[in-house]
Predict the structure.
Amino acid sequence: MIKIEKSLCHCGKCSARFKVEWDVDYISSYERSMGEESEYTGDGEFECPNCGNVIRGTLSIYEYPVGCLNYEKIDDVSDTENTELSRFEEPLVAFYDI
C-alpha cells in the first residue's frame, strides 16, 4: 500500500499557497538486483482558491526495493496563466503493508 500526504502548491499568478492531494496509479515494474522496482504516476490539476489559476503537474513515485521509496519527482508543471512560476512541493510518501 502507498500513502501520499498532501503537498503544498505555490500559485505563480498570485503567490497563494494551498494544499493539494495527489492520486496515483500503478504504472509498471521490472526486476532489478534487489528485487522489483515499481513506478506510480498521477496527473493533477488544481485550481488556486485565491485567483482561479489552474495549475497542473505530474507526480512520479518509484518504489525500490519493495516497500521503500526510491525517489519521487514532480514534472510537467504548468498553469493557465503561463507564469512559469507555479510549483509544487513534493509530498511525503510512505509504503506499508495492510
